[in-house]
């Protein structure tokens, strides 16, 4: 069994790199990959759970059969616009029923959704539209004060492949200059018509956006069968059952809330998914209470907010049994507060849109749950930790994580040149993450290869220094970045925010604090910048790239 490598136009390199035939055959033989597609799975979920509620968003409560029917009509609408199997469509929809309908409807029409985040702007949307050659852009007309319709028109003027804007919400405009505007609701009113044949289970189901905070985002093809396995195995690890209620706080287009186990894992288990329009405690706590939410997922900066809010708001979080935390390093001190403050179990998740997922298990001892980022999801995940020359390190020492497996990509979409550096010739994905592996098989994330500041030849680990900075009572968030320096090559800059009511610590005071903790002189920040807040990525991680750009700009004016 080989994988589809689709081609369009005069390209010489394939768009998608498949798994070698012998690995693919093994994944099928061993039951990781099944002959299933995501839209086909929705059909069988609807047959199983027909009248059960699948998705809750605002006042809408969508049953499984209803979702299936809406996906059919949307698929018919997409086909009626002239989109054909193999086309790509950029999806930028906030957490709501439209996201779910568009996701399954597009896939049912054979169109591959490019899943962008609501926070993406012109730079990302134009880049991802061009890279994917998308024919359509699906978005709300306006959202959070931002005019997505105008953005769509701008991108259409710049990228020739883009012919359709499909917009949610009232408004008018039929498009100009070769781009056609359609209303999402109207598309959904199309009577269900004949559908194209089900896609190949080995073909890309979705294109995810890479989460790396350096460089331009890349696209990650996830096939039907690899993503179905990803969601199913994740649901098993989280013991999701029909009675569970999953709250999608993070933007649903991100891999974590989408398939780890997220929306897809919850629907597969026959559970209910509640779409949360914003991840802050103000909105989320009310939904947890009203919908009796049992499981949700957050990034670390939000965990802090939730813990603080649970202290002063009289929140009823009694239904919550599991909080998954991942996406960035969770400080052990914060991890230790979760169960006490929120009254639920914690699960650490170290994952990536590229594939590999690590979870602490629900029956792991507390110390592993608090201090590690979990162990690989699948028995078929292969893990290697290597030094700068690509040689395996001694067990238990820090090195770069490389991986292969049944749900880890073998190449980014249309990125032959980059793929040559991000993958070894025998298919290992070089994650860029620095980890160490404990005897139990659990991984501890120690930072990123590129987040080591080279200060005149001394290596300063940003993650390590950030952890020490957060040990200071006046500091509530910290990001360490390297700034160009004429003498040192790079100097260490710590950008921090102050804890509420605390006075900003001066550099000297911080230096003394860090030396007292036993840090070497070269680890002491050369510069400390105090900010009101730190910029965040679309999913809510600290955005170091933007921070570095901002600091760079400030210094050149
Ligand atoms: C998740 O996916 P992405 O693609 O947005 O980001 C992946 C990167 C990883 O390579 C790693 O550098 C970092 O985010 N990361 C973590 C982490 N989880 C992810 N770093 C430290 N500790 C963790 N627990 O972020 C993602 C995808 C699926 C599930 C969970 C997170």
UniProtKB/TrEMBL annotation:
This is (2,3-dihydroxybenzoyl)adenylate synthase. Coiled coil: none annotated. Residues 464-541 form the AMP-binding enzyme C-terminal domain. The lineage of its organism: Bacteria, Bacillati, Actinomycetota, Actinomycetes, Streptosporangiales. InterPro entries: AMP-bd_C, AMP-bd_C_sf, AMP-dep_synth/lig_dom, ANL_N_sf, ATP-dep_AMP-bd_enzyme. It holds the Pfam family AMP-binding_C. Residues 43-413 form the AMP-dependent synthetase/ligase domain.
